Amino acid sequence: MKRIGLLVVALLLSGAVGRAAETLRIVPISADDRVVVSVELADGYTDEVKQAIASGLRTTFTYTIDLRMLVPGWVDRTVATSTVSLSDQYDNLTRRHTLQRVIDGRIDDTIVTDDEVTVRQWLTTLTRLPIVRTTRLDASRDYYVRISAQARPRGSSLLGFAASVTGQAKFTFIP
Question: What pTM was computed for the model?
Answer without folding.
Answer: 0.82
